[in-house]
User: Fold these one by one.
Assistant:
Number 1:
Amino acid sequence: MTARRSLAPHAALTGFVLLLAMVFGAAYAAGSAAGPVAPGMHRTGGGSAPAPGSGSGNGGGGSHDMPGMDH
């Protein structure tokens, strides 16, 4: 009886880890199938990230694109 009792936590932990891996795998597959989350997003194929404020996003880096908002 003690051998079976000592295996129960290991089996439960192994089952939980396998279930977690399956859920993450399914989420990754669904995300890959869905594609980018915003229009214009794509992989750049390497290189470094652009400097903050140098892109054309809505990052709040300045108001030069908005008429009447200059200080």
Number 2:
Amino acid sequence: MYLNCKELAQRWRISPSTIASDITRNPAKLPPFIRLGRAIRFPVAEVEAWEQQQLTNTQTSR
């Protein structure tokens, strides 16, 4: 299953234009994606794995 830019933006509650901008200016900020002509698709498994990598532990060790 794949997400398009609009669906990814809705998932993250950000503007689709932010996704579009990052695709052209800084694709390293995004999960891996597939370009099919002009269409961009994000594999859901890649998005979920990327989201897990972005999590940070804010608790201090005691």
